[in-house]
Amino acid sequence: MPAELLDGTKTANEILGKIRSQVAVRVAGGGSKPTLATVLVGADPASITYTRMKRKRCESVGMRSLKVELPAETTTEQLLAEIEKLGNDPGVHGILLQHPCPPHIDERAAFEAIPTAKDVDGVTLGSFADMWFGLGGFDSCTPGGIMRLLRAYDLPLSGKRAVVIGRSAILGKPMAGLLLAADATVTICHSRTPDVAAAVREADVVVAAVGRAEFVKGDWIKPGAVVADAGYNAGNVGDVEHAAAAERAAWITPVPGGVGPMTIATLLEQTLVAAERDA
Question: Could you check whether the bond before residue 2 is cis, i.e. omega within 30 degrees of 0?
Answer without folding.
Answer: no
